[in-house]
């Protein structure tokens, strides 16, 4: 078989066949049905009385189990488990703590890196533990081809190591071009570590991965899912996209590795995305995020020590003299954290807006708190503008987006559909034209609660923030403003799709 996806499909088919065979072979299937219904009641009772998730999510799961007998229960067992109950070994925790202590000490020893000017960055520091760092050269890359060529250029300059993590890595022309360059770098003696999400990159062929390993590239899946029956973490994915080169240069944002991100696609006329190139101290924060992902699922005692003992090459503290001095704060979080770090940071900066809030997101499915925060800001006189795709990549996500439009419009929020022949995949936000965020984080419940994400908070006034503001204005020029009159004319079919998508969005 070509890849894990084919294995998973085969396993599912065999399971379904086995169930039907069992029902046919035994005439006691009524007892089995009663058992499954009792199990559903027990699971529902646990969900109501003991599970800590929010009430909206609980209600959606209960409705799914009620309206989709058996299927709803199976989906909950596969996708709905409480991610914070996952158990990690003492070795895993020790490695994580060792890396965290090393990074904390590193930044403590470089106090001149800490940006102390912004009050807001101090608030986010208390929320996340990560300070805003000064002395960075930042480049906002709003075109996929431009971003990819810049990545290739930086990879060619690597002198010691290249670290890559992608939620989606495809073995197409784009993925192969980068893979061949990575093989060349390994042949030059450069360390290359490539990590990919076990579900997002399901399609990667075994043979292709084996070729990378044979060339000397360290390849590792993040939470590989072998089958739908054996996985306990199918729904908790690592959605980050980041590359770190020699600990000095980092790339992060919304772009995965595949042809469509360079607009090589028949489905859309153009793929609009945004990445951020970082050169300077903030790249070390991205390095820390990558290494945390790399070592967290290892069982070796010295997994973290391998990197912390070689601090001069993995965590350099001297950078070439920078012509620019921009402040950047890297925040990251995931489903295993006790607090929703990026979600809370978004709410904090939105709550501090005094003039304007500008958001572009391909998947806009806010929870109750974030929706209320945006509505309250608009109703208090702050101009709120939100750009979402005019054409979706998936029906469920598209109608999930549009299901919130009425609630936004009634609060005075301006909503825009991006070019209906293209696809908006950029994930960025601007507050008062003075602060901007770029990252892997969508403005949706999956990014806020279920995914591992990373976002950069850039503080202005700065050239990069001004560039991102210009990019938003350009995106607006390619967008159509949604009106309540247009909404009133939508079909019954669309209204039903929106209602269903909104209802089930807490499960996604």
TrEMBL record:
InterPro entries: Cardiolipin_synthase, CLS_N, PLD-like_dom, PLipase_D/transphosphatidylase. CDD domains: PLDc_CLS_1, PLDc_CLS_2. The chain crosses the membrane at residues 7-26, 32-50, 59-79. It is found in: Cell membrane. Keywords: Cell membrane, Lipid biosynthesis, Lipid metabolism, Membrane, Phospholipid biosynthesis, Phospholipid metabolism, Repeat, Transferase, Transmembrane, Transmembrane helix. Gene3D superfamilies: Endonuclease Chain A. It comes from the Bacteria. It is a multi-pass membrane protein. Its EC number is 2.7.8.-. Residues 234-261, 420-447 form the PLD phosphodiesterase domain. One of its GO terms (cellular component) is plasma membrane. PANTHER family: CARDIOLIPIN SYNTHASE (PTHR21248), PHOSPHOLIPASE D (PTHR21248:SF22). This is Cardiolipin synthase.
